[in-house]
Design a protein that fits this description.
single chain, alpha/beta, 8 helices
Length: 216
């Protein structure tokens, strides 16, 4: 995601420090250390963007702790501020990490994550960039290390090519595809779906949304 550098970005991020996890060592030692209720299952969103999904999921699912990861500080700044200004209260079950999916295994201990969300990841359409796609087998192997056996990956995209590629990669990785839809908003899961900013825009333009639920 490209975004102009935010004015006073570092100061604004610092003002949201209560919701930001900055120490990988602490997270590796105890991935629930920043949450009040450490007994809840842990969910991870990779590439949270401006935070619409993360904030909505944390509000809807009070039975999970959610860590939202975003590699672009300027984008994460927007997500942090969105979470901080919730009218009712700041979500106690939501925290953010500014980090890259390449370094997942430096942030999370083995088999510590129950649910993984990949929402509208960069499709990297050029064939030579396939390894950069977050559903490439190389990334699936990283996920296998941090996701608990039986854990679930939820994948959404507007890009049919990326969706087809991802299904192939899931099969190569020996993962079980539990459910798919090539038009999520017309499926039986439409009512419970929490949309990202991108998803709202794509849906308004009439583009179908593709989704897969995959079990490790």
């Amino acid at each position: 995601m490209r975004m102009r550098k935010k004015k006073h970005r570092d100061e604004r991020i610092s003002a949201c420090s209560d919701l930001l996890i900055e120490n990988p060592e602490m997270l590796m030692k105890d991935p629930t250390f920043a949450f009040s209720d450490k007994s809840l299952p842990l969910a991870l969103e990779i590439g949270c963007g401006k935070g619409n999904f993360a904030v909505g999921m944390a509000q809807k699912r009070q039975d999970i702790n959610l860590i939202a990861m975003e590699k672009v500080p300027d984008v994460c700044c927007v997500a942090l501020e969105k979470a901080m200004r919730q009218k009712d209260a700041r979500p106690d079950n939501l925290r953010f990490v500014i980090g890259n999916a390449d370094n997942l295994n430096e942030w999370f201990p083995e088999h510590s994550v129950n649910f993984l969300f990949l929402n509208f990841s960069d499709p990297w359409p050029k064939a030579g960039h396939a390894k950069r796609r977050l559903t490439h087998l190389n990334f699936l192997e990283k996920y296998k290390r941090i996701i608990k056996p039986g854990g679930t990956l939820y994948f959404k995209t507007d890009n049919e090519g990326l969706f087809n590629f991802s299904l192939e990669q899931f099969a190569l990785g020996g993962l079980e595809v539990v459910w798919t839809s090539r038009d999520l908003h017309r499926s039986d899961r439409a009512d419970g779906n929490i949309m990202t900013e991108y998803e709202m825009s794509f849906s308004e333009k009439g583009f179908p949304i593709y989704m897969a639920e995959v079990r490790f």
